[in-house]
């Protein structure tokens, strides 16, 4: 594990409840993207030590396992937060820096860069060779003039990929960010994201502002270096924006700040590329800002209707779901038309634990794909599924849980409160003593949780201690998720499909 991994793991070990990526990013003064990258290394390390890192949508991270094993990991690591390593002169940083210089400026001599980094000319040549090999593997030729959206987004995403490889093991300081992207453009992009990424909070995934900042770093530098995109023949305008809208005003203000700071004007197809880039990251995705022919509301209603039918749930009248679906649709279409790929860090959790919902979204989204001539990636399916996951939770029928506790009244209340505070609120818990069990109508319950051995064959049973720990409650949570899925499947099998 790297020093960054150790810092994050030490912090996670000190927490007793779920904490979001933004919490850890703020505590360690790194980006949320860095947290997601390093969490994968931590997950592997914990697995090797008999622990697990649980990630839940909207809640965050939690280390699950016995306190003894957690203490063993603490002793192994030591609790001293490591000092941040200086990576300025590492080969990895040099290559990232040189890659940027290839894209954003006139390339200088090997000797110039050798003197900058205090290394030999031969070392710099090897660095350039490594970058060239990466470009070849990604089928990118920088010798030809770039004019199409497809070529440009391919180049920009290749650099993003290279940057991501670096950030998996190190973070960029503010000084290094300015060295690579220039202090002026770094400030313009950072200020814009900070001022605008919260304006459309109902469509913002926490990963999107990070992605937008990096995208603006690259695109604004490319324009400064002379990027001149042109419109291909037989081109169909995608997402034509009306004049005098919030979106057009935001774009105008950004381009004016950029022009006054760099002396470069963004116009023509470069400007249209910028519109799609901002829209693709959820900036001002208001359906009223576009021509009516796009039918965002109509297509969103069709999608919700199909998913409702598949899940056997009545989601058609959920006004909040319709709103977030419309506002999600616009940036999604912009991203896919631009060729911009973004990653959903929760994709694995959603596909594993909410497979039914994700599959329903995937099969129901074919109409959206045909109408807008796009193809949804697994990450886009996952991002879209999150809205339906939240809606399903709102409409979820209660699970009835019978809690049997053999301890006294005070301890029994503690057990009940522990379960109530750590399980989804739509579940109904009934607390009884073992002596009352024979009088209960067990067919009214979905799950039995007990602190003592009981003989019940008609109900799934999970045992916990009288002082339940997080790792004991976690299996109950996932059993309830399974019960919810089974109820949805049962409802779908008896509910006639809604006519299309």
From TrEMBL:
GO terms for biological process: regulation of DNA-templated transcription. Residues 291-398 form the PRD domain. Keywords: Repeat. It comes from the Bacteria. Pfam families: PRD. Gene3D superfamilies: 3.40.50.2300, PRD domain (1.10.1790.10). PANTHER family: CRYPTIC BETA-GLUCOSIDE BGL OPERON ANTITERMINATOR (PTHR30185), TRANSCRIPTIONAL REGULATOR MANR (PTHR30185:SF12). This is PRD domain-containing protein.
